[in-house]
Design a protein that fits this description.
The protein is mostly helical. The protein is built from 5 helices and 2 strands. Helix 1 runs antiparallel to helix 2. The radius of gyration is 20 Å and the shape is elongated.
């Protein structure tokens, strides 16, 4: 036995948000990291490369890019051992839609490409450098 009235045959979703954003999941060219930032760790360079080529950057204004620069400096300090910056970094990347949950809350949807090939590792920063940095960071704490 079902409760309530029978649903209409042509039911329409009415909770679709008018300001929802659908982002193209295609590879972005990205921006080059400003030399004046003085980033020295491989982890922070990878952070910049990941975010500068992310689909979210399609809609970014110049102020958003400035926030990425500031956050990259915080990530550089994090990789140098300043673990107190971790929560600030997490709050900032959540506002950009870092995780599936963050994107859902921001009403962002990434367009799925069924023919998408898995990404290859970036040739300019070997993973061994990142592993060494993380190993040092975790052992010094």
């Amino acid at each position: 036995m079902t409760r309530g009235p029978k649903p209409k045959d042509n039911a329409v979703r009415r909770n679709k948000h008018e300001h929802a954003t659908e982002l193209d999941n295609a590879a972005q060219a990205g921006r080059e990291m400003p030399r004046g930032l003085g980033i020295s760790t491989a982890g922070a360079k990878r952070f910049w490369r990941t975010w500068s080529t992310a689909p979210q950057t399609q809609t970014w204004a110049e102020t958003d890019w400035t926030e990425l620069e500031i956050t990259t400096k915080l990530v550089d300090e994090l990789y140098r051992g300043e673990l107190k910056h971790a929560s600030e970094i997490r709050m900032r990347v959540a506002k950009w839609g870092a995780t599936v949950e963050d994107r859902s809350r921001l009403r962002m949807k990434l367009e799925d490409d069924p023919e998408e090939k898995p990404e290859e590792a970036a040739p300019d920063l070997p993973n061994s450098d990142l592993d060494e940095e993380l190993f040092k960071l975790l052992n010094d704490a």
